[in-house]
Request: fold
Amino acid sequence: MSIWWLIPAVVGLVGVLMLVGGIMAVFKAKLGSGLLRVLFGGLTLAGAMIVGLIGLNLQTYAALSKERLAGQVVLKKVGDHNFTASLDLADDGKLRGKPVDFQITGERVHISGPVVKFKPWANVIGMDSLFKVSEIYGTYVDPNCTNTYTPRRETTEECNSGDFFGCLGTSWKLLNLADLSHTSDSGQLMADGAVYDIYGSQDAFELKPNLDNPIALDLQSQQVPGGAQNCTAVTTPVQTPEGAVQYNAPAATPVPAAPKAATIAPRVTPPAQVVVPQTVPATPAPQTPAEPVPAPTAPIAPATPPATPPG
Reply:
């Protein structure tokens, strides 16, 4: 048992005993001593819980950031862009002492292999990730040079079954605890005499310079010793088990155009109706009927006097 669990457990037990003893003393009418026991017991129990939480956080951090030695790579330059990589794998964090030499060409050395990452709570209770170094190979800094000179990939003979989990020697029962399974890869620049250590974390491989090797440490501040190679792009057909496949240059994936929104005709606001106020005619005052005007009569002609007889 970790000391981070033993110490708070003992302190917590003492706090519980003091707390229970204080409560019993209170019921026995010993208020003074009983209350003091309850107070000190509660404080002791609270302190144990705080220490326990601190221990849990430390153990969680240690479990999730744990790294284990998986191997070591020692480089020896044979010629320009031609190296011998001595790979010594490790079991349970200890090198086997049986290095195997691989021919590596290029400017960088890479190691890769399967990794099974377990859920974080499984890491906390002691289940660490599973991994194997299955391949070692070289590349150039310029991808076009890698495509032109096609460095070989060599197998470490650690995984020949073709079964991802079978390669790791695990049981199918562990699949329920697995959070992620993938192939991890890590690479570093090559130079004569460089030494790199292979570490496996809870989710990946890391190729780190050996702290006692100044050559590998100095490479961390360089781009490429002697300058990177520049190559033209390779556009010849790519070979597959089914035959040659025409090379397709990288192209940006067209972003689907957003659907056009339906055109909405602008709403025409009808002119405001002018309300003409209607004037109610005033009620005419009663008028006195006018007297009838007599119709005009024709003028009377004057009477003609009778004629005077001659006489």
Remarks:
- The chain has a mean pLDDT of 78.
- The CA atoms of residues 242 and 252 lie 27 Å apart.
